[in-house]
Amino acid sequence: MKEDSKNFVLFAVLAALILFGWPVISGYFFPTANPPVTKIEGGQTKVVPNPAADPTSDAPGALRDRRIVLAETPRVRIDTPALAGSINLKGARLDDLILKRYDETVAKNSPPIHLLSPAGAAGAYFGGFGWQGDGAPDANTVWTATGDVLGLGRPVTLQTTNAAGQRFQIKLSVDENYMFTAEQTVANGGTAPITVRPYTYVQRAEKSPDPDQWTARVGPMVVVDDDETNLEWDEVTQAGSRFATTKGWAGFTDHYWLTAIIPDQRTPVDLTIRRSAAGRFGAEALAQNPTIVQPGRAAVQTVRLFAGAKEVKVLDAYAEQLGIRNIDNAIYWGWFKVLEKPIFYYLDWLFRLVGNFGVAIMLLTLTIRLLLFPIAQKQFASMAGMRALQPKMKALQEKYKEDKPRLQQEMMQLYRTEKVNPMAGCLPMLLQIPVMFALYKVLILTIEMRHQPFVGWIRDLSAPDPLTPVNLFGLLPFTPPAFIAIGVVPILLGVSMWLQFKLNPQPADEMQKQVFAIMPWMLMFVMAPFAVGLQVYWITSNVLTMAQQWWLYRQHPSMKVATAK
Amino acid sequence: MIARALILMARFWQVGPSRILPPSCRYAPSCSAYAIEALDRYGALKGGWLALRRIARCHPWGGCGHDPVP
């Protein structure tokens, strides 16, 4: 008993450490969920503004309004099912891009996401194509366009001719998602040869507003052959980090958005990530070898620029069909990719079946429990078999009362000769941990889970529960600190786990009993800041375990008597 | 040296996660105790291999009972 109480004190101390240390540790290692999209005030669900997207927030005075900047230069409109915006004819820049399918917040009247913005406006972020060399057009060159709208199946050619008679052409086309393709042509109509090196670039004035996290990297990213490198913002220097490659790409990834420059996958290029003197972050791909174009000849190369949302299927298709290596890894899957992707695709399939991601998560739980059911059943059957051994075990317990290790050994011997075993081993339990982690990553990473409602007040399954009894469900006019603001769903999680433990036979060990008494409530606190979707998974899992227990007891009526005793 | 580190890992498992899981061992001694003994007696390579094989044996369709380190 003494040993037990010592253990219990140790456990209590550990529990307290975990409880209070957890927010600190988890904040670092496990960003728990996406930021809340709603808060509940006075019984009303209010949409929290997205600080990252507000163009007027803390913009330095020198920055002008986006609309004013856009109106200053001639432009070609972009209009596809997924995108809106315009191309700046001054400098041939892609510097105004709106993602039509995504909103800043969950509010009905929310503005869409502005991914790219022109230099001079807040959040300047743009990309483009050009040439290095004497006589090549620069940032001040005003191009002429063959059309006034770039759309699906409606390419636009930008064109400029320099004083020496050399014509530069960029034929831009866009697909139904987020890939721009540029055919860059230099036609030498002059009398002297011209030497140029084509390049592609993306520049952004600011770091991403999304945090760079251990489980969800954000920032500059470079892929060389099959290796990808995620740089940190602070690692980017003016000298730059250079990567020489033929098969690769570079870009900037936000939590949900990506811009990537994809050079012609046959030409050797230098991919460089650097900071400009003005502090802008830049990614560029510059051909290693200059192209010499003789008079009367032309040189063509095709490059691509991705600017859009990191939709799993879209990126997978680009990786496969366009052969862009590892562009699917712009979503930071990590080590558990092999598990995360099947879970994502299965969830997505269920979602299209039922139309609600919360319900899809519940169905996913059901599937996993069904897969594990044979194990539970087998375990239960052998538990029933154990009942028959009860007298023999009693006898052994009497015989080796003083010698615990020996008793253990004799019991195991008994199980072996009688061919029963009460335990399934720890494997079935441990197997669920990677599944849980994979679901956590899928919820946090994939844009498909962003702003997905479940029921009632839950408008985003990838954020924590905003409804908490601590401020009387938002009726009291204060926002409790996040740490004690336990939502309704996490409370349900605690209750369901407590009930589930209640249904199980009580463990014989005193210490175990204590652990089981505290664990549901501890886990309630631990899980509270995580995405509601993850809690939905766990609650469903608990409920299904209880249902399974109930069903198995009905199959083996003798067991019920045993636990009732 | 490597054996020491691996034994430490097994010890960590014993005082950490194993404590809060319901008792579930099919074998005696438990996998962690088995691993510690095997690593101690046979070193990192062979001991580690023995421990791995033992863990691989421990599943609902595997064996059970008294199974000491050879």
TrEMBL record, chain A:
Subcellular compartments: Cell inner membrane; Cell membrane
Residue span(s) of domain Membrane insertase YidC N-terminal: 75-345
Domain Membrane insertase YidC/Oxa/ALB C-terminal residues, every copy: 357-554
Described purpose of this protein according to its UniProt entry: Required for the insertion and/or proper folding and/or complex formation of integral membrane proteins into the membrane. Involved in integration of membrane proteins that insert both dependently and independently of the Sec translocase complex, as well as at least some lipoproteins. Aids folding of multispanning membrane proteins.
Gene Ontology molecular functions: membrane insertase activity
Membrane topology field: Multi-pass membrane protein
Protein source organism: Sphingomonas spermidinifaciens
Gene3D superfamilies hit by this protein: 2.70.98.90
Protein's name according to its UniProt entry: Membrane protein insertase YidC
From TrEMBL, chain B:
Membrane topology category: Peripheral membrane protein
GO CC terms of this entry: plasma membrane
Entry-linked InterPro entries: Membr_insert_effic_factor_YidD
Protein keywords: Cell membrane, Membrane
Similarity comment: Belongs to the UPF0161 family.
Role this protein plays: Could be involved in insertion of integral membrane proteins into the membrane.
Protein name as it appears in the record: Putative membrane protein insertion efficiency factor
